[in-house]
Amino acid sequence: MGRRSLFFAVVFAALVWSGSALAATPQQLTIAASDGAKLACSVVVPDTPAPAGGYPSVMLFHGLGGKHEDLEPLATQFLAPAGYETLECDARGHGLSEGLFGLDGPRDVQDTWELFTWLSTRTGNTSIGALGISLGGGAVWNAAVAGVPFKAIVPVITWTNLATALAPQGLSKSGLVQLLASYVPESRWDPELLAAKSSLITSTNMAAVTTLAASRSPLAKLSSLQTPTLMIQGRRDFLFDIDQALAAYKVLKGPKRLYVGNLGHPPGISPASAPDAAIYWGEAVKWFDRFLKGTANGIDKKLIELDHDPYDGKTTTFTTLPPMKTSSVTLPGSTTMTGSGAKVVRGVRITGGPHEMLGVTKVVVRYSGGQNWDRLVAVLAVGTTPITAGGVKINAAQGTVTINLMNQMLKVPSGQKLTLYLAPTSLAQNNNPLYLASVQPDAKITIGRVTLKLSMLKKAVSR
């Protein structure tokens, strides 16, 4: 329970922001939505005189379980000094805002439309951008594809496909889902969301989950989005991995840039305390400068930018996808697992190095003798540190299954042993609480030969 409590605390820290001295004073106010719900908000106005056409502005969106005050330090320390007025509001079902939590559903998109209109009327300037973190990043994406006329957007550590983020290959990250569900009381949930909760936790009736996720997943519409987009994603984030942003980068046709840094949901670092925070918030300001003010500053170059770990104040940039390589190794053996506490552990050392993991590593598992066994979870670790994980639903007594592991970026020093854990839950690896839902006590399966197809950078950027 101690490990899980620590895990939960770190997740919450990743969704909020903590700051120090304020450069301007937030003004608290309430804005009524068209359905009568009152939204608790604040505006931050620059200390400098307003330009003739009014301040350009940025709408800020907080993370799950957060509140608008979490974003005020970002507004006062970065955006107001750069000449931007900001509007930040408690999402429905959060903080002091009325209404029901909809997980960036249609009503939340309507709120964004109305708040955009309110802000442009207030400032007299329609040059408005948007920045959102986690849940707030989803709000930004979904509003943008719905046509809210932002001049530039910055989605941070968020999703583009909610189904593949929460339940890749049909198996829910049940531990994380249960944790995230606890951040907003069920009494404040939208009925559609509440109806899908049990299915998402248990990985049953996934059609309901697919329907819910589809209306909140912008990926299918991004090829037609022209809004300049700076994506900020975490190297290591077991909730929203690098692929959530990379999939968007591949299809966006307008100006785009992807920054992959040390921030993220666990096992990443809170955006407030990540060592490279000044870099990515600074780039966000430059992005708005370029597309809200028209400042020619070079930030609009189409780049994928990778920071280093440990952080050394530098980044490595690529004009196309970074050169990758795959190392395939066979892990022989035959082990029978019985019940929820069973596990298979196999290890390997990769020659050369240091290596830097990036991309989707695949675990190909041959199995037989399955009895009441409907899931298989894989966790890849170096020492006690998990590199990546994944899970899949299985429905046959024997065969071959491929588990796609999340796209995570982690340096593996030369000579370090990699350990692969296979089990019905992720608890097999150092009580990792990512996948918690398990098999029946009498369930049985025999794991045979395993092929590990490691995806990594052709040349590590971290030293």
Short structural description:
The chain is an alpha/beta fold and 463 residues long.
Q: What would your notes on this structure say?
A:
The structure is a single chain. With 463 residues, the chain is of the alpha/beta class. Helix content is 24%, strand content 29%. Strand 3 (57-61), helix 2 and strand 4 (85-89) form a beta-alpha-beta unit. Helix 6 packs antiparallel against helix 7.
In terms of structural class, how would the helical and strand content be classed? alpha/beta
What level of helicity do the residues show? 10-25%
Cα distance spanning the termini: 35 Å
Query: What percent of residues are in strands?
Result: 25-35%
Estimate the global geometry from the Cα principal axes. globular
Overall pLDDT metric: 93
Rg value: 22 Å
Q: Main β-sheet, in a few words? A: 10 strands, mixed
Order of strands in the sheet with the most strands?
1-2-4-3-5-6-7-8-9-10
Unreliable runs: 1-22
* Count of extended strands: 21
- Tally of DSSP helical segments: 10
What's the arrangement of secondary structure elements?
Blueprint: H1 2-14, E1 27-32, E2 38-44, E3 57-61, H2 72-79, E4 85-89, H3 106-123, E5 128-133, H4 135-145, E6 152-156, H5 162-166, H6 174-181, H7 191-202, H8 206-214, E7 229-234, H9 242-251, E8 256-261, H10 277-293, E9 303-307, E10 315-318, E11 324-331, E12 335-338, E13 344-349, E14 355-357, E15 362-371, E16 375-382, E17 385-393, E18 399-404, E19 410-412, E20 417-423, E21 444-457
Parallel strand pairs: 3-4, 3-5, 5-6, 6-7, 7-8, 8-9
Antiparallel strand pairs: 1-2, 2-4, 9-10, 11-21, 12-21, 13-20, 14-19, 15-18, 15-21, 16-17, 16-20
